[in-house]
Design a protein that fits this description.
Number of helices of chain A: 12
Mean pLDDT of chain B: 92
Mean pLDDT of chain A: 87
Radius of gyration of chain A: 30 Å
Structural class of chain A: alpha+beta
Largest sheet of chain B: 6 strands, mixed
Radius of gyration of chain B: 18 Å
CATH class of chain B: Alpha Beta
Number of strands of chain B: 10
Bound molecules: adenosine-5'-triphosphate, magnesium ion
Number of helices of chain B: 8
CATH topology of chain B: Rossmann fold
Number of domains of chain B: 1
Strand order of the largest sheet of chain B: 6-7-8-3-9-10
Oligomer: heterodimer
Low-confidence stretches of chain B: none
Structural class of chain B: alpha/beta
Helix content of chain A: 40-55%
Chain lengths: ~400, ~250
């Protein structure tokens, strides 16, 4: 035994073109907004999730939440270097980089200004971050005021093109290269030599030390070594754990996405419900006829819920297309937001993943289901004899 | 006398609005033989449609019993009744009640979706039904592309698609001009004589009633007259029908 064929519902959607179009657009808008906010959250999560290696250990002063709050004396660096567990590079030197992080407020190209992280690194700074690649120019020469700039930063800030000068107060840095860090944290940074930076900013010490350990056991050994030396008063965290903690920046955005999405979805549900109520009351005699022919209440209910879901599905597809266009055209390239842990700008791209699109479609189906349930129940409980008396 | 297909025993149908009770059928008893063609006449509001709906199992009596064949229709559950209708009753309505978004073929196929037939069998059966009503050339036409008479013929094809024993028709010619109405009556007569359908038809029109073999006259919810045709063709005849309709 079959139910009422789906073509019956689909054709009815196309019969009432205007209401169908309006309802579809309403649902599409909700899905598009939801997807854009979620794509923003997804982009941010990606920045932090992709950053940080399991084997890398970030050494900070005890109880520091971020590199900005941390500080290490110059004299502590050799002690850290001497700890066991550190991997050696192919040239035999330990994979360690003592780094200095400063946040500068730089002028943007489109007016205004924003905070950018400038990071001083040692020789192995880049080797410690395998996703990093120079895309243009060359790397800086240690001891000079040369810098390399992330491409995302270069696009957004003044003086960051190759050969130009970045200015901040009396400071000048010559841009000699651009790099790409594959969507990880350095994509929001400007890099230079840490020794040179200590001089420039007249600092007595570094912010952090990043070290690569050989394996998990070595990592634990190294972390224990850092904690065990009372002279240090430092702690080592896995780089991955450090960035995971920073992902909290994305959490409120995702929450916002869900919140806005759900509030708007309730509105769209009522839209679909209205449309379906109108559809049911204009087809009362038709429904009674189907019941007289022997279709059960359940098959009427299912039929009208499916009609509502089909309606919402159209909305979902249009919404996905809309979000796709928006992200590709209007929100293309990179965008910045403030990392609430470091208060520096984080550069990221909207990421509209296939999973997100699928979520958008499912989201629309859920709207269709709830919007259609009550009208379908009304249809299913149509009183046959009374409805057959209706004319028109 | 042939065995009865429909047995109506002491049926009362009342509607209660606020405190007022409206008795539409008042202890009515009636039997309809298998293979009979019965016309139900009576003034407006006399309970014809109500009685037809009870026989067809889309309504329930306040009291009394209705049996169709061996099935006690008045005692069935909602779900069982729906299944029973799909197997035993063909409906013909005054306003045809075709589904506008479905083609003639799809409308006729609709009741067949409730059977266990395969797609090919459904196709064959729907096409046969449309051939009986002489609309084989209109399978893909939508109701709005058909005349009223053609729409009613599609509706008749839908009613006979599952080959039910009983056809119920409420004013099947009520919305048609006399020529189209005549075609429908000829068709019903054929379904009765050639296919052996039991037909119960509500009508105001003496010319339609004249085609029937038995005429039941309702008035204020009770049987007023019950006339059986005699003679060769077994039809009531226009004169007798007109006389009964006029209440003489
Ligand atoms: N759902 C209902 N609630 C209350 N009264 C009803 C209801 N359905 C029918 N009636 C009343 O029952 C009576 C009989 O109605 P019915 O439709 O059976 O008459 P009928 O003989 O078919 O009339 P007509 O020739 O006008 O079609 C009428 O007075 C009608 O108003
Ligand atoms: Mg009536």
């Amino acid at each position: 035994m079959l139910g009422i064929p789906l073509k019956y519902n689909v054709r009815n959607l196309f019969v009432r073109k205007v209401t169908t179009t309006l309802t579809v657009l309403g649902i599409a808008l909700v899905v598009a907004v939801f997807l854009c906010v979620m794509a923003l959250g997804e982009g941010l999560t990606n920045v932090f999730a992709a950053s940080g290696s399991e084997k890398n250990v970030l050494v900070l002063r005890q109880n520091s939440q971020s590199e900005l709050q941390s500080g290490l004396g110059r004299d502590q660096i050799p002690l850290i270097r001497a700890l066991p567990g550190i991997e050696k590079d192919s040239d035999g030197k330990p994979l360690v980089s003592a780094e200095l992080v400063v946040v500068l407020n730089l002028d943007k190209r489109d007016g205004g200004s924003s905070n950018v992280t400038i990071r001083g690194v040692e020789e192995k700074g880049m080797a410690l971050r395998p996703q990093m690649k120079l895309t243009e120019g060359r790397t800086f020469v240690p001891g000079t005021s040369e810098v390399i700039v992330a491409e995302g930063v270069a696009k957004r800030f003044k003086g960051a093109e190759l050969g130009q000068e970045i200015r901040f107060g009396a400071y000048r840095w010559k841009v000699v290269g651009h790099f790409d860090a594959g969507g990880t944290a350095p994509d929001s940074e400007i890099w230079t030599d840490s020794e040179g930076m200590l001089n420039t900013f007249q600092r007595g010490g570094f912010s952090s030390v990043l070290a690569r350990t050989t394996d998990r056991a070595a990592r634990d050994l190294f972390v224990a070594g850092v904690a065990g030396d009372a002279r240090l008063a430092l702690e080592g965290k896995s780089e991955r754990a450090y960035y995971d903690a920073q992902t909290s920046t994305a959490a409120p955005i995702k929450f916002l996405g869900f919140f806005v999405g759900i509030v708007m979805a309730i509105g769209a549900c009522f839209g679909a419900m209205n449309t379906m109520y109108a559809a049911v009351s204009s087809r009362t005699r038709e429904i009674a006829t189907l019941r007289a022919l022997g279709f059960s209440r359940l098959s009427i209910l299912v039929s009208f819920v499916l009609e509502s879901i089909a309606l919402a599905f159209l909305g979902g597809v249009v919404g996905c297309a809309l979000a796709f266009l928006l992200v590709k055209v209007a929100l293309s390239g990179v965008t910045g937001t403030t990392n609430f842990a470091t208060f520096a700008e984080v550069v990221f791209a909207f990421r509209l993943t296939p999973q997100l699109l699928l979520t958008g479609i499912l989201f629309s189906l859920v709207m269709g289901f709830f919007g259609g349930l009550f009208p379908a129940a009304r249809a299913a409980f149509t009183k046959i004899t009374a409805a057959l008396r209706q004319v028109g | 006398m042939a065995e009865p297909l429909i047995r109506i025993e002491n049926v009362v149908k009342q509607y209660t609005r606020d405190t007022q009770v409206l008795t539409v059928l008042d202890g009515l008893s009636l039997e309809v033989e298998k293979g009979d063609f019965v016309a139900l006449m009576g003034p407006s509001g006399s309970g014809k449609t109500t009685l037809l709906n009870l026989i067809a199992g889309i309504d329930r009596p306040t009291s009394g019993r209705i049996l169709v064949g061996a099935d006690e229709v008045s005692a069935m559950s909602e779900g069982a009744l729906a299944r029973w209708r799909s197997e035993n009753v063909g409906f013909i309505f005054q306003l045809y009640n075709l589904v506008p978004v479905l083609t003639a073929f799809e409308n006729v196929e609709l009741p067949l979706l409730l059977t266990r037939l395969s797609k090919a069998e459904r196709k064959k059966q729907a096409e046969t039904a449309l051939a009986v009503v002489a609309l084989s050339d209109r399978l893909d036409h939508y109701p709005r592309q058909l005349s009223g008479g053609q729409e009613q013929r599609v509706a008749i094809a839908r009613a006979i698609a599952t080959d039910p024993a009983l056809l119920v028709a409420d004013e099947p010619t009520g919305d048609l001009d006399s020529k189209s109405g005549e075609e429908i009556l000829v068709l019903l007569e054929r379904l009765h004589s050639e296919f052996g359908k039991t037909i119960v038809m509500v009508t105001h029109d003496p010319k339609a009633a004249a085609r029937a073999h038995r005429l039941v006259h309702l008035d204020k919810g009770v049987l007023k007259e019950d006339v059986r045709a005699k003679g060769e063709k077994g039809e009531i005849g226009v004169a007798a029908a007109a006389a009964i309709a006029a209440g003489r």
